[in-house]
Design a protein that fits this description.
Layout: E1 10-17, E2 21-28, H1 39-55, H2 58-67, E3 70-76, E4 82-88
Parallel strand pairs: 2-3
Antiparallel strand pairs: 1-2, 3-4
Length: 99
């Protein structure tokens, strides 16, 4: 899975699983940390966009809602500088949750 491109700007660099959390390490290949003036707004945009995709996926929704699993995304710049992270779980997958 490492090195796999999700789209034209997003690459999975690794993934691990702990007892109840799947952690994905993601690199934005077109962004340096300095290219993102408002990390908080960028995090909100990405999490808001991705939450419905993961939270409603057949397997992920069962793991999250029935088994209490979480999907954690660790986001890095093209030079591998840490940008932000977010976790999709039963709370953040709620339709009422606001990033």
């Amino acid at each position: 899975m490492a090195g796999q491109m999700i789209d034209d700007q997003t690459q999975i660099t690794g993934a691990i699983a702990t007892e109840r959390t799947l952690v994905y390490y993601i690199r934005y290949i077109n962004y340096d940390k300095s290219d993102v003036p408002n990390i908080s707004a960028f995090r909100q945009k990405i999490a808001t966009r991705n939450a419905p995709l993961v939270c409603t996926a057949p397997v992920a929704s069962i793991l999250i809602n029935e088994y209490g699993a979480g999907y954690k995304y660790m986001m890095y710049s093209k030079t591998r500088e840490y940008l932000f992270d977010y976790t999709l779980n039963k709370v953040t997958c709620s339709p009422n949750y606001r990033w």
